Structures are given as C-alpha cells and as structure tokens.
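Limitations
The structure tokens in this dataset are predictions for the assembled complex, not deposited experimental models. Users should treat interface geometry with appropriate caution, especially where small molecules or nucleic acid strands are included. An illustrative entry is reproduced here so readers can see what is and is not provided.
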Amino acid sequence: MSFISNLINGLSLGSMYALIALGYTMVYGIAKMLNFAHGDVIMVGAFTMFTAAATLKFSPAISIIAGIIVCTLLGVIIEKIAYKPLRKASPLTVLITAIGVSYFLQSLALLIFGSNQKSFPMLFNFEPIRVNEDLILKSDSLMTMGVTILIMVALTLFINKTKTGRAMLAVSEDKGAAELMGVNVNKTISITFAIGSSLAAVAGLFFGLTYGFIGPYTGAMPGIKAFVAAVLGGIGNIPGAMLGGILLGVIENLSKAYISTELSDAIVFAVLIIVLLVKPTGLMGKKINEKV
Amino acid sequence: MAMLRVENLEVFYGVIRAIKGVSFEVNEGEVIALIGANGAGKTTILHTITGLIQPHAGKIEFEGHDLVKTPAYKIVQMGMAHVPEGRRIFQQLTVLENLRLGAFTRKSNSEIQASLKRVYRSFPRLEERKNQVAGTLSGGEQQMLAMGRALMSDPKIILMDEPSKGISPLIVMEIFNMIREISSGGTTVLLVEQNAKKALEISNRAYVLETGKIALEGNAEELMNNENVKKAYLGE
Amino acid sequence: MALLEIKNLGISFGGLHAVDNFNASVEKGCLYGLIGPNGAGKTTVFNMVTGVYKPTCGTIHLDGKNLTGKNSIQINKQGIARTFQNIRLFSNMSVLDNVKLGLQNQIKYSVAQGIFHSRSYKRKEKEMDEKAISILKVFGLENEYNYLASNLPYGKQRKLEIARALATTPKLLLLDEPAAGMNPNETGELMDTIRFVRDEFDMTILLIEHDMKLVAGICERISVLNFGTELASGKTEQVLNDPRVITAYLGE
Amino acid sequence: MKKNNLNIHNLITYGIVVAAFLFVSILVWTGNASRHLQAMLVPIGLNIILAVSLNLIVGFLGELTLGHAGFMSVGAYAGCLFAIKYAEILPTAVRFPLAMIIGGLVACVFGIIIGVPVLRLKGDYLAIVTLAFGEIIRSIIINLEFTGGASGLKGTPQNSNFYIVFVVIMITLVVITNLVNSRAGRAICSIRDNRIAAESLGINITYYKLLAFVIAAFFAGVAGVIYGHNLSILQASVFDYNRSIEILVIVVLGGMGSIRGSVIAAVIITALPEMLRSLADYRMLIYAVVLIAMMLLNGSQKFDKYKGRMNIGGLFTLLKNKKSAKEAG
Amino acid sequence: GGNGDADKNTLVIGGIGPLTGDYSTYGVSVKQGAQIAVDEINAAGGVNAIKFELKFEDDETDATKAVNAYNTLMDDGMKVSLGAVTSGACIAVTEEAKKDGILLLTPSGSQKECTQYDNCFRICFTDPQQGTVSADYIADNLTAKKIAIIYDKSNDYSVGITDKFVAEAAVKGLEIVAKQAFTSGTSTDFSAQLQQVKDTGAELVFLPIYAKEAAFILKQAKTAGIAVPFFGCDGLDGILEKLGTDNQALANGVMLLTPFAADADDTKTKNFVKVYGEKYNGQVPDQFAADGYDAIYTIKAAIEKAGINDINAADFNTKIIDAMTQVTVEGLTGTMVWDESGDASKDAKAVKITDGTYVAI
Ligand SMILES: Nc1ncnc2c1ncn2[C@@H]1O[C@H](COP(=O)(O)OP(=O)(O)OP(=O)(O)O)[C@@H](O)[C@H]1O
Ligand SMILES: Nc1ncnc2c1ncn2[C@@H]1O[C@H](COP(=O)(O)OP(=O)(O)OP(=O)(O)O)[C@@H](O)[C@H]1O
Ligand SMILES: [Mg+2]
Ligand SMILES: [Mg+2]
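Predicted assembly:
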C-alpha cells in the first residue's frame, strides 16, 4: 500500500515538473534558446495571482486570468527587450542574458514582496480524496495531471495542425529560410513566448495551490528541475517533456522512499546521466543525423 | 515600368564593402541572368532584395513598392520567391512538409494541391521521397526540393541562386527547361548562375557582376558573343 | 594490385539501398572519376571509404590492407584524405592553421613540449609553417595564409580544402564535387591544379563531379553509379559514350 | 611575422596582468588600498583562473559545461584535507604548493570521468550532464563525514594571499595560451570548428576533448585549493551550479576564445556586485540590469559599432578584421 | 570612509547576512530587529553619549562575500561586528575579527566555531545545546517514544541539532523510527518524507529546521493525513507568520523549544512586536529579529559595564570584550550571561501553538 502511495506521490510531483517542462521545452524547441528565466515567470504568475486574490480581493477566476495575462505580456516583453536583439548572437550570449533576466525578476520580486514567503490563496478548495486509511489521492495533483495532459495534447495539435504551428517548426530550423517562406519570424517567436509564458502562469497557479507558499525564489528550483525533465524527455519534444517530468518525479520520490532521502538529488541526476549516455538526445528526442 | 528595380545598391559586411553601387532592372516576364565570378556579390544582391540583409544605401523597388524597409516575410507575400544559395531546406522536416511551407502565404487548399501536383510532375523524385526527412536527401535532390518549395508559393517573380550547382547534367537540363517553363507560365525570373552559358541561353538580358560592381550588361545574345565574356565566363 | 579495391560494397538507410554491390579498383597514380545522377550514392561511397558510414556489406582495401569498418581517424592514418561536397573548413581559424591541422599527424611533438614552448616545439612549428606554406603555394594561397578561412572567396575555400587534405600526405585523395559552384574559367584552373597535384605528389585521385568538361578532361577511368548500383565503368571516352550512361545521366 | 604577432598579443595579456598586479601592490604597500579592495583580490584572482580554464572548454573546444564549480570543489576538498592533515608536519612553503598539485590532480581524475559523456553528448545535453555531475558531487560531499558535511570543513591553514594567486594566474595564463597556440590547441579548436573535418584529417577527437577537460579541471581544482586556503571554512554549498554559471558569464562576457577577455571580464564580474554595495537594496537588481545590458551590447548587431569597447576580446578581433580588410584592399 | 561618523562618537556596528537569495529572510529579520534596538537606544540619547549606527551588508550566504562585506564595513569605520547571520559565513568572519581584535557578537551563528576566539560571542543557542535539550524535554515531559526526524541535510544548523538529538535520544531511550532529509532551497515537496513518517508509525515528528520549510511540511502533512504532533527548535519560531492567516490552523499543536515567542506576554516582547509591525508594514518578528535586537542591547550593556564613553579610545576593544563576560542582559530571548566560551547561557521555553497563539507548557 505504501508503495502505491509513494508512486502516486511521485506522479503528482512529476506532473508538476511536467507542467513546467512543457513551457520550457516549447520555448526551447521553437526559439532554440534555454530560457533560464522560465522558472521566474512562474513565480511572477504566482505573485500576480496572489496580489489579485489576497491583496486586491478579486475573485479567483479574475485573479487567474490576471496572472495569465501578466505572464503572457511579460514573456513577450522579455523576448522583445532581451532576446530579440540577440537573434544573430551566439546561443551562449542569449543563455547568459536569460540568466540576467532571471536575476532581474527575482530581485524585483524581492524588492516588491520582501523576502518572506507568502501564503498562496486557495483559489479553489480541494479536499483530498481518501480511498482508505492509507491511500489518499490529492485532488490538486489530479488536477495538475489532467491539465498537463490537456496542455500537452493541445500543444501537439497546435504545432502540427495549425499554420502558426508550422511556422514555428520552420522558424525553429532556419529563421532566414522561414522568412523566405513568408513566415513572420518575429511574430512567430513572440507567439511562442506568449504561449510558453502563459503556460508558466498556469504552472504558477498549480504550484501555489499544491504547495501553498510562494517567494521570490520559488521559480528557480522548479525551473532547473523542468530543464532536467525536458532534457530527459528529449528537449524540444513536447510529449518528451511530459514523459521526462513524470519520470523525474517518480524516480525522485521512489528513491527518497526506498534508497535515501539524503542522496535522492544525486540519484535523480545519476539517472539522468545514464539515460543520456544510452540515448544522447533524451528519451523521445530525435536523433539528428548529420549528412556528410 | 520595370517590375523590379535596384538602384545604387551598397551593401557592407561589417567593414567590407561587398556591393558597390549596383543598379539594374527586371521587367515583367523576363528572364534575367546575373553572372559573375565567385565572390562577386551575386548572392548578396539576392539576399538584399528579399530583405535578409539590410543595404547600406540604395533603392529597391518591386512593382512600385519600396522593399528596403519591408521585412522579408512581407516581400514574400508580395509575390517574390527566393531559392537561396545552399538551398536552406528544412532539414528535419519531411519533403512534403517543406513543400507545404513553401505555400505558407497561400490560403486556397485546392490551389496548393494543384501546385503540389505541378511540382511533383516536374520533379518526380520529390514525390518518391515525399516522406523522407529532407536533411538526408542527396545534394541534387535537395536542390530540387528548394526549387519546388519556391514554386509552391506561386510567385510573380522568382529569384534563383545557382540552381544548377551540384546537379547532374541531365537534371541541369531539366532545371533549365523548368526555368523556361516557369517563365513561359508568366513568372519573372532573376537567375544567378555560374553556368553562364546555360544561363545566357535561356535569358533575355544579363548583367555581369565583378567584385561588387556591374561590369557589363546587355541582351543575352550580345553578351554571349562578347569576347570578354567568352574568355572570362564561358571558358572558350 | 590496385591501390583501392572496393568489393561488393553496400549500405542501406532504413530500407533504402543507397549503395548496392558496388565494385571498383583504382590503380595507383590513376585519376578516377565517379559520376552518376543526384542521389545515386556517390557521396555515400566516399563516406564508406572514409569511415563516416559503416558499410552493411562488402570490403574496402587500400594497398592490400583491409579498411572495412575502421573509423575516419584510422582510415586517414592509413592514407586516405578527402574533401566534402559542402565545404568543411575550420572557418574560424587561419588558412595556415587549416593546413597545419592536416600536418597534425605528420609533424609531432608532445602536449608538454607545446605547453612549455620547448626547443623542439619551436623547431617543429617552424617546420610545419614551412611545409604548410609550400603546400599553399601549389594552390596560390600563400599570400592569404593569415586570413580566416571563412573570409576566403568560395573558389579559394575549395582549394584550401584540397590543400588541407593533401597535407595529411595521403596515398589516395577523394574529391567530392571540387568544381561545384565554379565558373568555366575557375574550373579550368582547378583541372590544371588537380593534374599538377597528381603529377607532383604522385597521387591517386578519386573524384565525384557533375561537370562533364572536367570529368572528360582529366579522368582516365570512370565508374557510373545509378540508384546505388554500378551502371558502367571503364575508360572515360568509352563510358561517356555508353548509351545507357547517356540516357540515365548525361542526356542529349 | 605571424608568430611575432602572436607573441606580442600574448605579451600584452601578460603585461596587463603584471601591470595590474604592480599597481595594486603599490596601493597596498603605500596603504592606499581599502580593506575591501584587498579582500577582493584573491576572489578576483580565483575567478581569473577559473574563467581562463573554462574558456579552454567553452571557447576553444566549443562545448558548453555547467559543472566547472564541481571540479573546483573536488580540488578544494582534496587539497584542504591534505593541508589539514599535514598542517603541523610540513612547512607552508611545501605544504601549500603540494596541496594545490594534489587538488589539481584529483580534479583531473574527475575531468576524465566527466569527459567520458562529453564524447557522446553535445550542446545543451552536455550542459545538463555537467550540471548534474556538479550537483552529484556537491550532494555527496554534503553527505560525507570526513568532508565536514553540511557544516563545512574547518581548520585549513589560511595561506592564500594575493601574491600566490598572482603567481598561479601567471602560470595558468602561460600554460593555457601556450597550449592553445600549440599542436594540441589547434586540434582542440578544429573540433569546435568542424568535427567531421577534423576526423577526416586523422585528428583524435576523443583524446583532445579529454585533454581539454583534464587541463581545465586541473586549474579549477587548483583554484579550489586556493579558495579553501583563503577562508577558514569550506562549505559545499558555494559550489552549486550558480557558481558554474558565474564563471560561464565571465567567459561569455570576455569573449569566447579570448583569454585576455576572460581576465578582464573576471575583474568586472567579481567586482561589480561589490562596487554596487552602496546601492543597498537595489544592488542585485542593478547587477541584473547591467548584466543584461552588457550582453546586449556584446551580442546585438545594433551595437556592432561599439562592440569593441564592451567586449574586450571583440575589440581585438575588430581591429584584426579592420587590418585584414585593409590588407585585402 | 565613514570616519566622519566616528569622530562624532558614533559607534558603527556592522551586520552581515543574506539580504538576497534563498536565505534572505534570516538576514532581513536580523537587520530589522537590530535596527529597532539601535533606533530605541539613539532615541533615548545613546549610551554614555555614544550613538549607535547600524550598517548591514549582504553576503548572499557566501563566506567569501561575507569577508568582503566585513572589510567594506571596516572601511566604513566598524568598531563592533555582528559577525554574520549564517554559521558558515560567520566562521569565515571570525578570522578577520580576530586579526582586528574587535568584538564579534553574532545574533544567530549557531555552529560551535562561530565563537572560537576570545573576542567572539553569540546570542542564540548552539546547535548541540538545542539537540540535547530537545531530546531531554521530549523524553521527560511527553509520552511519545517513537520519533521521526525531518531535517535539512544541507543546513549546518539542522544537521548539528539532529546529530546531538539522535545521540541524546539513545541515552534517554527514545526510538528514532525515521530520519528523513531534504535540501533547503530545492525542496518543496515532502510527500515522500511524510509517507515514511506515516509508515513507521511515529508518535512525534521532530523538526530541527527553519519555519520556511516547516510551513510546507505542515501543509502537506495535513493533506497526507498525519495527525501526530510536531516538535521544533528555535528555528521554527515565526511559523505562524510563515503559514499566513489562511493556514494558521495547521500549526495547532506544534510544540517548540524557543527562547523567543512573539506571543509572549511580557511587555518587552509586546512592545517589540508592536514597534516591529509598525515599522515593517505589519510583519511579525521571528527569533532572528529578536536575536538581532538582543545583540544590540548586549553591546549597550557591555559599553555601560566597561564604562566606555569614547569609542575612539585606544583600549575600546579590550574593554568592551572584557565586559562581555561580566554583563547580564535581560533580552527578548531570555536572561543571558556569557562565559569564556562566548556562548550565552539562557533558558529555552517550551511553547505549544494553540489557535494561533503560543502557550507556555
Ligand atoms: N556573411 C558575410 N560576412 C562577411 N563577408 C561576406 C559575407 N557573405 C559574403 N561576404 C563577402 O562578400 C562578397 C560577396 O559574396 P557573395 O556571396 O555575394 O558572392 P557570390 O557572387 O554569390 O559568390 P559565389 O559564386 O561564391 O556564391 C565576398 O567577397 C564574400 O567574401
Ligand atoms: N544518412 C542518411 N540517411 C538516409 N538516407 C541517406 C543518408 N545519406 C544518404 N542517403 C540517401 O542515399 C542516397 C544517396 O545519397 P548520396 O549523397 O550518396 O548521393 P550522391 O550520389 O552523392 O548525389 P549528389 O550528386 O546529389 O550529391 C540518397 O537518396 C540519399 O537520400
Ligand atoms: Mg553566391
Ligand atoms: Mg554527393
């Protein structure tokens, strides 16, 4: 019974990682940049909803919408100011800029909200479902899982079936050639960031609901974990992000339960390394043959 | 009035002045060849016309619209297609996906299907390989794909950068036939070629580019008989 | 016995038989052409000979040594150098350094000697410089030795790639479409250079080319590939006049 | 002629470091250096060593790693444990250099271990694996008894000072610049530029990749030992991925493949947050803004004209390009 | 240089701690608590005509940056150092303070080495003290015998207490049924640890951790249906504030052994909590804030004891350091006296949280 509980706990942690990894991998896959600030956009989303609901006393629905709008705008603005001028620069320059943006958002949140964590308002009230004495299903985790699957399907359909989606695929490979096809590259990348950031807002919501507390550095660790999850699944690959996130959560929880809580981080990272040594482009990543 | 007009174009790469005041015109329905040695600046001119590079000075007009400040994707929407140097096909997408992207600016599905049929007719190899990942096509196949993709947008004018490069003789003939066909179908062609002989054979007029400047211009026949051209570009 | 002996060579990519049962033997000192329609498998043959791809079947022998299944590095050390269909230079390095990289396994000193700039470092570097310049001279690139490779015009980049390959002192040189993108004049020059290299360095050269003027002008023997299989091979004029080759490849 | 240029280029780099060293020394001797400045000298020096060595991997080999702090930490622990053990037995003049060598060598061993996946992985996949290695190392150090665990390792003699750091910086500079300008360095750069072409020339990719990792790890390890000898406590928490990122920031800011750039950027990035102390609460915010601005100046085409002024490495390429443009006519 | 201030007989007290980063709440609390004390003392005319000035620098919990901060403060004329808020940074700073011979009085550096030199003192408990006292208290006063521990393996404070607790528990016959670790900064999900607590049938969970993570644990414990009591040390103080008004019920029944409780009845605490809330828009001070506050009053007491009235006097350092072992300070965190070791001896109060208030037990 306790194994099942541990597994379920792992799945709920994993679906949180997966939810974050989806936005991460989306931006990576299309804009070909590691958006290190993604985690911090999650934090901004959570704080926006917090401010709207707890301070300004808006209704939950409005607070959530506000969070999504703020994050979407933020994503687009960050892209315009910090990343767009660097289209032709080396990927590392963009990576460092993203880190700079991450520091910026954290410092700003620290200035505005202070260092103390805030209790996230319960925008919905979830009661855990008690199957029996030992087995408790957390309804917020079930929600997270459901929403994550929904988003994954929607994203996959969007990218493969819509015109904008096809434009994204073209942009992800060769911006110049995409432009020659009549694709508005800047707009496409903006849309990518808008979608990625609105997903971050959703992740912020579920993070807040599940764990209850948010602070200026809330996004940093989930950001890294999502990065790991995205890579594990094959970075840029949307179902891969889902798989990577879930696996990461399950492995993390099971190794805490059955091996060692002290070394669980090390175990998770070791699994990642082993997977990548066997499959160098992640579990679902396409192997790209370089034609000589 | 000329369909495409380039006036006093100046292009720099950093401090290097690659195009030094080039002017030329392309009239509707013409096939214009732009020939010149390696590094003369042919590719640079095409890139500047389709907006991938910003010129330092000069004017580019297409059907009366100024192209200099127009973003590349809008230029495509105006009806200009570009078969770029090095092909720039989408390596990780399939042949069919590449062709679909070629028709990105078009709305009507039936018209797109018709274009697709036409492209397949011209390049049967592409139909055979329609589900192959484009990056693994052979060099020649990739070139065909690049041309097919450009045709998918049903352009008014098509800019081609060395379409015969790396193509086997039989297909080279086919490609030049294709260009003729495209032209007779009413599409204007601006053709950049190393294969000057073939290019001059099918074009109305031509410009000879030398280190960023127009050295010679005239109608194709004249140029073909020009002693300098013969020596420098026809290898006679 | 021939310098390069290819027997029954074949490879498939997920069901596609890119090359099937290909045979060729290239005599020492020969200028050998490999032609065929696009996608026939010519570059793939090069890739198997140089160890980039592992053949699914068949054998490759150089000078009697079996090279089948060896990797690129080992094969280069056995004496095969190549150029690529799409130029692969070390674009952020100088022209001189590109050639010196070709000399990497010819003139050696240890890492420690390099770090401490020992005497032998200085001597060997000087030797490398001189050797590299002498090779660059063959291609008329000696004045550009200090340029970044990417700043060279296209034609010179092609030449530099050949120079770099030559620097590894191969027994066999493989050239993949060396004249692609060149105008007739430049092609003419290139033909002279290739002949010169063959004579001066006593080199065996196998080349892929679509420019029939070049093929007819310099190749002594050729093989024609079509759909991965051999269509014809033999003396150049014979093959080029073979009606099968004309319908499948040359046209007219 | 080319060799001369190269030598002059290197000599200028050495000259800048020596001049800066002399300048600071004079300030210190004449009592004009604030304590804050003096305290910052060792950390700045350490970042120079770390950045120059990381540049070998990132700038010259062209691989992205986020685990440089991991090398630093194993070096630090190995060297400091040695130093603590022999604190009473060996005199400082013997013990400290020996500790540095031991730290460097232990880091080398880890360089090989981490180098192995490098042979299979590329780009961001490699980045995450090196990050993972760094975190694993840290996690293990925290859980070990003899490393002092979470409370940290105490009792390392505080032997580091500005002069020793200067000597190590000079050694690092000479070794890395000489290496880069030698046969091995050329091979390393060729892998970055075109791996397939390098293979076709018979260049042993595996060997040179590992070589770059091992040499970079060695200096990171040495830097770790100096770090451990600079403070009375060594805590694993300082070697997290943020530290690796800080070094990467320096390398990128200084210009990938520019050693002089790394040196100057190390000074800027280490000193900047300290300089901003007077801004109190706004310090990290301003730091972030400055970092973003520097990267934009560095990488945006809009600022191409001014690039040389921001990116130290870039300044020299710019000048070189100008010169070769002139030569080309 | 801030030497101008020194001329005016203003004592520059330098504080160092994390003001940014994951641990910033601790640095900020100490800074704010100490500032209130400084303001109060100055408002009352100072001590022996000496005014206080608090300068506080960020160290991001990094020892190197703490040393840099220390030297910045020395450049600014610091005469007394509050060491650093976190132990690792504080230990690095003790070396510098030793060289300078100035008084170092850390509010919250709890590792043993934070007071390793004669000029170094502390306000808070040491880790070993707390571990032992906690085990004793549980064994002597509570019925629970099967104990689970959830601790922060990356935090020296938490590891230090845990080690001593485990040792003392063995002596006292308590059974440690689960010892579960996490890493602060990277952990928000404690479901695995709590599942373990549940599976082992523990009767009490010992939480030698800080309130920030404890808030997460309490929230998740409720979802997981864990109903056993939680017991913490001084780090747990501030838990009510961390939980926020929505979640205060979660803390019901939590016991902690702390020298400071913001809900205490004495006028001193009440006054402090009031002023703190007014000055820092409604925040409730935690134990770190109280430690900061007490540190400043301890310095005041030492100055008074030593009879110093000129901070520029040559023997300022020796006099104030000597005075430290002679003063008795009635602080927010208890009545403190110091011996040669530099550790404060004071009593811990055991309190239980009931309906959002601390009740002494
Ligand atoms: N991105 C670039 N940066 C710097 N210089 C460049 C760049 N692209 C081209 N050049 C230079 O500009 C000049 C013109 O190049 P361009 O590619 O337009 O020539 P081309 O006529 O198309 O030659 P080819 O026949 O080789 O394709 C050349 O001297 C080339 O070296
Ligand atoms: N890595 C690969 N994966 C899948 N198919 C491949 C791969 N490499 C080559 N092919 C296929 O093998 C066939 C032969 O390709 P190859 O590049 O050898 O042709 P080629 O004769 O050199 O043609 P060209 O003259 O156009 O360069 C082509 O159909 C190509 O699509
Ligand atoms: Mg061109
Ligand atoms: Mg080929």
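Some entries come with short summary sentences. For this one: The longest helix of chain B spans residues 169-184.
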